[in-house]
Amino acid sequence: MSTGLQEAQAGRTFIGRLPTDTDLVEEIERFCAENGVQAAWVSVVGAVRRAAYAYYNQTMLQYKEMASPRHHEITGFVGNVSIRDGRPFLHAHATFADINGESVAGHLLKGCVVWVAEVEIRELSGVELVRQHDELTGLALW
Amino acid sequence: MSTGLQEAQAGRTFIGRLPTDTDLVEEIERFCAENGVQAAWVSVVGAVRRAAYAYYNQTMLQYKEMASPRHHEITGFVGNVSIRDGRPFLHAHATFADINGESVAGHLLKGCVVWVAEVEIRELSGVELVRQHDELTGLALW
Amino acid sequence: MSTGLQEAQAGRTFIGRLPTDTDLVEEIERFCAENGVQAAWVSVVGAVRRAAYAYYNQTMLQYKEMASPRHHEITGFVGNVSIRDGRPFLHAHATFADINGESVAGHLLKGCVVWVAEVEIRELSGVELVRQHDELTGLALW
What we know:
The structure is a homotrimer of 142-residue chains. With 142 residues, the first copy, chain A, is mainly beta. Chain A has one helix at 24-35; strands spanning 6-18, 40-57, 62-68, 72-84, 87-97, 103-108, 113-125, 132-133, 140-141. Helix content of chain A is 8%, strand content 60%. In chain A, strands 1, 2, 3, 4, 5, 6 and 7 form a seven-stranded antiparallel beta sheet that branches. Chain A has a two-stranded antiparallel sheet with strand order 8-9. The radius of gyration of chain A is 15 Å and the shape is globular.
């Protein structure tokens, strides 16, 4: 497995809806912390009352943070949970569509306010995914 | 599990391609009905000859329906199946790219005509996901 | 299973990060070839230093290839692995966001240069997914 991928086992699967007006990122991280989920793949079907997202500047090695105060459908979502600073951390990217079908997109930040969020958290066991500082990218990676 | 997420078991996994010119939503729902799939997470890699999608107006509590008669690649897709009005119901959001790489996106409606749709339906068992009217949002939710 | 979907079994699950500056498509295909993965569903959370993507013209039956030399977040990703010409082949579509939160999207081509790519490859066993020429669409399909 030369590329650094490791084999994981299927763990528990959790499904359900997050409460309206909670923080999308915080709520998923809190659920994982409370239920001992240390590694997972995460998917969301839903909408937000406000979108908060970022673009990582690969030259400056820093995030540019953005937000949209409008209501958005989440029309693309890829995410995972692993350990950062000793706690479950959600790393997710999403696309947010507006009333005209146009969208903004980026790295998910805290500050996305849930309207409806149907979430699947598919736990991966048998692996240790711990984020640590990566010199090359400036990011916390496994 | 304070946020309302419940634990599910992995059920069957179905994979394959939907016929060209069928309705993307109807075909997935029909497959689930015929095969007794009552809860599932769904993913699609494909393209459509026509896109139909919506934006839910969180103030008016109603959908604004939109359509694009152009051919589109499906470049983001998140979806699940649960029970609504006694039958399997697909709730999915998607991003549809056009010939210039630009996209429209929203809540998937019936009316998306399949060009190619490679579908995975990953059943979840041991859970009851039944949509019922939610006062706060005006939507049919679990 | 009238629509052509078949039942698969859950196989192995691989998770990890692809090296920076590798080719996103080639690296996933190489991993699958080296590890005997013949069918899988694939997801990626990450960013690229360059995006390469295409739109399939359903009238002309040919791909229009595009590229963006900018850095992008991958904000939507759906993909699978199956066999084409005797080897594991990645079919994936993705959305790529830029520094303004705007995005381009399409069918993933070789030429996407990895900045960070956190990948899950969820193997499907018990199925044979072999791509062959399809007259109607001009594509290699199962």
